[in-house]
Amino acid sequence: MHVAAELSEHFGDGVFFVSLAPISDPALVAPTIARALNLREIERGTRPPEEIIEAYLAGKRVLLLLDNFEQITAAAPLVADLLARCPGLSALVTSREPLHLRGEREYPVPPLALPASSSDATTLTRYPATALFLERALAVKPDLSIADATASAVVEICARLDGLPLAIELAAARVKHLSPRPWSHVSPAVSAC
Fold first, then answer.
1. Domain-by-domain residue ranges, the chain?
2. What dihedral do alpha carbons 172, 178, 179, 180 form, nearest 10°?
3. pLDDT tens for residues 58-73?
């Protein structure tokens, strides 16, 4: 999303985020893209979603951010067709699997840097892994307070997730229901799981 935000000025007709995480059927990719583009015509069902998307994108400069494509790589030909038929379209796809499209470039996302386990609350924002955790956690729980004791739990969570951005984001979203605590305060029955 950071890359898409930085590129937004190059796409005068918009940058559109398309969450594909809940989708496991490749046939649902086109309708999901159409909804992200706010194309209401898809609801009438008079034309295939691919045609509706293509007609909308004709002559436009648009970036589609297709997030979590790995479980629906069978829909890669749809992306290839849209890119071939819509010269102003670009796609930024997040996936653990390559799409094997002509012109595809892979950019591996390395783990984010972590502070030492003995870090205090003031150092968390200086490291990408813990800063991402805090940013996402505050988005779901704006009143979250991180004390020094809790800071070590945040560092441990990020370390156990190997500094992987998606894993950190998913864990931080759970802060709405589960506050980060030092691992030593977790019940042995829970830690054994």
1. 2-93, 121-191
2. -60
3. 999 999 999 989 999 9
